[in-house]
Amino acid sequence: MRFSKNDLYQMRWSILAACASILLGSAIVYGSNGYAEHAQQDQYNAQRLLSEAQNRLAIARQDQENMSVYSVEYGVLEKHKIIGDEQRLDWIEGLEKLRRKNLVADFHYSIAPQKNYAAMLAPASFAIDSGNFNVRYSEMKLQFDLLHEAQLLDFFDALRSQINGRYQLEGCVLQRGSADAESPPRLKAECSGGWITLQNSPK
Amino acid sequence: MGSRLLLFLCANRLHAQLMSGDKIALQQDFNNSQEGRAEFAAFLQPLKSPAYLLVDLIEEDFRQETIPHLKGRSRSALLQRKCDQYYRGTPFHQATLLQRQKTGRRDDEMLFSALTNPSLIIPWLEIMQAQKIPLAGIYSIPQVSAPLLGNHSSDHLLLISWEKSAGLRQSYFIERRLQISRLTPVHAVSSFQDAVIKELGRTCQYLKSLSLLPEGQRLDVRILGHGDDLVELQKKLPVAPDMRYDFAGLDEIAAQLKINYRFTDSDASQIFLHELAAKPPKAHYANAGHTHYFTLKQLRNALGWFSGSVLAGSLIWGAANVMLNNGNTTETESLKIRTQRALDETRQITQTFSVLFPGSRAPAADMKTSVSIMRKLDQYAPKPQDILKPISTVLDHFPQIELDNFDWRTNATSPDINDIAAVHGSIKNSGNVATVITIKANLRGFASDYRAALAYLDRFQRELSAAGYQVTMPTKPLDIGSGGSIADQREAPEKALDFSLQLVAKAPA
After folding, report:
1. CA Rg, chain B, in Å?
2. Does residue B497 lie within any of the structural domains?
3. How many Å apart are CA B477 and CA B455, to the nearest integer?
4. Rounded Cα gap, residues B179 and B171, in angstroms
5. What are the pLDDT digits (tens) for B284-299?
6. Is B183 helix (H, G, I), strand (E, B) or coil?
7. Both B283 and B414 in a single domain?
8. Higher pLDDT, B16 or B176
9. In this predicted model, what pLDDT tens digit does every residue of A97-144 receive, in sequence order?
């Protein structure tokens, strides 16, 4: 069967209705698919946001617990200037104050350049999780002239309590000095250790 | 069911009836004349219903022929060629498959038929074409007769019906397949009963002459008519051994076929018209040109169904999408509420921080880390008094030991300490750092009593061990081993007995 123009004219409303239904149907399907996609995307985003919020809440709770446990000790560290850049001037001034107090007969010190403490550690024996910090270490060697060994103990007590900073004493060698007719026998001591500072790692 | 226009055409008149459902809404008869055709045109004017044209004409020819079994275009071409050969002068022809042979080449047995006097039909068709009436098809009475056979079991059946305006129609079926049909025009007979009695014998003879009714075969005759006429006819029909009669009342047939019509005489045309409207046969005499407007109407209907289906489908799809995702939306709202609660709680905790720890700028994790580092370092750096005091306490018990040198080292960074610690199995690979103390001293006041000196030193070592140290002696005051050399020492009686000890104290874990 062949169609003439007249036939198409007669069928115009049916053809238009079919075209309109296709367009309208497509719009409905497209719109509903868009709605469904939007709803699913919303749900996915909401799930992601919830997950993030729950993580933040867990971190906040952990922080709350950490703060209640560690804030006082951390405040002490901040006060003693252990957190941040090292304060060599404070150390020198503190050592000179100790010298003036004559806690020991005499002492000399030498401070070496700062190093990364973690790099100096034997890996299997001493592992520190330093988190966001770099543990820095400035080696300081001390040489003492002592009248008796208690002076050494007093000196390190004073060093700990009176100088801002943290000195990590690692070892000492005490040996009897040579006897002299004019002065009582003295002890000589040589101690090694270093100043520890915790610097925030660059992010 | 929508409205349908049923047309019944016989030689000299056309009956038209508009069916609304199964009831006749409008009907009119038209003579085969100029006036009649003009009236028909006027009748059609307001109508757009599909039309079914049923013809009952003498000029209908039937031919049986066996053709090879073909398919597709070859079959169409063959059938067209046969129709052109038999019925060149008429466009109203058709070919119907009766059966396929069961033996031999299994050819097709075909029934070719045609309305051989198109001039009786074409004028009416032209009017319908002009009015753009959607003509579904052109059918003949024999074509729509098959359902009237009912459940008759006979293989050789003659169906006789009476159409008031056409005449007596006799259609012969073998195994329920139409073989031949003939119409005795109405002007040739006076009444239904007379026509049946007069024509039945002739038809029987005609069938036998064509060998359509085998010799000795009994012919079953099914006669349709009004109940009263049939009673009368039953009395008049001669009893013949080779014929068996079956009288079917029109009202009974109408009831069987669910036709809502009250018959007042034996005119069966309404049975055929209603049956045609209810179940129009697929095959008919009209060609594509005749059914052009019906095809267009079907296309319009199909497009309408298509449009409706598309709309309905898309609406269902859309509704399903919306309904299914409404659950998602509800869940999303629930997630948002939970998120907001978590954020509120986080904010509350943060605000509590600022109240409890004002001015604190460091993150809590950093606080924990820094404090943990310092605690750990504290473990590895005992105070000097913690190292000196236990050894001093032991030394107080041994006044004859004079200390020359005291060296301790508590240093995780010093590889030599780790080596020393590794010598002592208890701290090997322990992951802790040991404090290693080296003592250099001498024994006084033992003169040449080496046995007493060594026993004294041995007690000293045991006491140190009891204090928690692991003790080794790198340098002994007197080497009494078999591999060493010993010399007389009388010349220097006050010579000190020097020795050295290494003590390893494990740092607390």
Report:
1. 62
2. yes
3. 11
4. 8
5. 999 888 899 999 989 9
6. strand
7. no
8. B16
9. 999 998 998 999 999 999 887 656 544 455 677 788 888 999 999 999
Residue of B nearest to A116 (CA): B413
When mean pLDDT is compared across B337-346, B395-404, B413-422, B434-443, the lowest value belongs to: B413-422
Co-location of B144 and B252 in the same domain: yes
The model's confidence at residue B414, banded by pLDDT at 50, 70 and 90, is very low
What single letter denotes the amino acid at residue A170?
E
Q: What is the mean pLDDT of residues B378-400?
A: 86
Is B353 close to A67, i.e. CB distance below 8 A? Answer: yes
Residues of A in contact with B352 (CB under 8 A): 64
Neighbours of A112 (CB within 10 A): 12
Tokens 């000179």 sit on residue: A96
From A36, A60, A131, residue closest to B321, measured CB to CB? A36
The encoded tokens of residue B236 equal 């008049």
Distances in Å between the alpha carbon of B62 and those of B65, B95, B108, B207? 10, 10, 16, 13
Q: Listing from the earlier edge strand, what are the strands of the sheet with B108-115? A: B60-67, B108-115, B93-100
Question: Closest to B373 (Cβ–Cβ): which among A64, A120, A130?
Answer: A130
Is residue B99 over pLDDT 80?
A: yes
Which domain range does residue B492 map to?
A: 382-506
Q: How far apart are CA B133 and CA B293, in angstroms?
A: 7
Closest alpha carbon to B439 in B507, B505, B506: B505
Contact B141, B130 (CB under 8 A): no
Distance linking the first and last C-alpha atoms of chain A: 80
Asked if residue B364 belongs to a domain, the reply is: no
Of B290, B322, B344, the one marking the end of a domain is B290
- Which one of B372, B384, B415 has the shortest CB-CB distance to A156? B384
Nearest to B469 by CA among B498, B430, B439: B439
- Number of domain units in chain B: 2
Q: Looking at the structure, do residues B166 and B49 belong to the same domain, yes or no? A: yes
User: Which chain B residues are within 8 Å of A17, Cβ to Cβ?
Assistant: 303-304, 307
Average pLDDT of B139-158? 85
Residue B482 domain-assigned (yes or no): yes
* pLDDT (tens digit per residue) in A139-191: 999 999 988 888 999 999 999 999 999 998 889 999 887 656 566 657 899 99
Of B290, B324, B343, the residue at which a domain comes to its end is: B290
Burial of A29 (0-12, 13-18, 19+ CB in 10 A): middle
SS3 B328: helix
- Same domain for B240 and B386? no
Listed in sequence order, the residues at least 6 apart from B372 whose beta carbon sits closer than 8 Å to its beta carbon are A129
Run of H or E including B5: strand B3-9
Q: Tell whether B9 and B132 lie within a shared domain.
A: yes
Mean pLDDT of B192-204: 85
Any A CB within 8 A of B130 CB: no
Please, where are the H alpha helices in B118-249?
122-130, 192-209, 227-236
Residue B374 lies in a domain: no
Interface test with B, best of A10, A54, A67, A201 (most B CBs within 10 A): A67
